Amino acid sequence: MEMAIVAACSAVLMLGAGFHVYWAFGGRIGAGVSLPQREDGSPAVKETAVGALAVGLVLALVLLLLLGFAGLIRLPLPHWLLKTALIVWAAAFTLRALSWSRYFGLFKRVRNTRFARYDSLLYSPSCLLLGLGLFLLALADTA
C-alpha cells in the first residue's frame, strides 16, 4: 500500500514539475489556466519564467525528498530529516488545497474563471491528495 502512495505522489509531483519547467521555457499548452484570474479573467499574478521554473524545481525537490524517504534513492540526509521535510510539505500542500484564498483552494471566493474551474477539479484535489499521501507515508513510518 505504501508503494502505491509513493507512486501516486511521485506521478503528481513529476507531472507538476514537468509542466512548470515546460512553461518556464516558453511552453503554452495549459498556460492559460495555470495562474489565478480575477473575476474579469485578467491574471491575478504576473506570469514569469523564473516563477514557473522555481515552482518546477521545488516540486522536483519534494519528489527527491519523497524518493529518498521511501528508500528508492540515497540522499545524504538522515531519515528523521527526510520525515520532517515530508511532514512540512504535506502540510503545505494540504493548506494550499484547503486555502480560503480569494483565487485558489477549495474554499476560494472567485469561482467563475477558467483557472477556478481547473483549480476546483484538478489543482486543489491534487494538492489535497498529495498532502494526505505524504502525511500517511510519514505517519506510517516506524523508523
Characterise this structure:
The protein has helices spanning 2-24, 49-69, 79-97, 114-140. The model has no long low-confidence stretch (mean pLDDT 95). The chain is mainly alpha-helical and 143 residues long. The longest helix is centred in the C-terminal third of the chain and has 27 residues, at 114-140. The radius of gyration is 16 Å and the shape is globular. The protein has 4 helices and no strands. Helix 1 (2-24) packs antiparallel against helix 2 (49-69), helix 1 packs across helix 4 and helix 3 packs antiparallel against helix 4 (114-140). The two termini are 17 Å apart.
Helix content: 55-70%
DSSP helical segment count: 4
Strand runs, count: 0
Termini distance? 17 Å
Briefly note the structural class of the backbone: mainly alpha
Low-confidence stretches: none
Q: Tell me, rounded to a whole number, the average pLDDT.
A: 95
Strand content: under 5%
Mass-distribution shape:
globular
Task: Write the element-wise H/E pattern from the N-terminal end onward.
Answer: HHHH
**Sheet with most strands:** none
The Cα radius of gyration reads: 16 Å
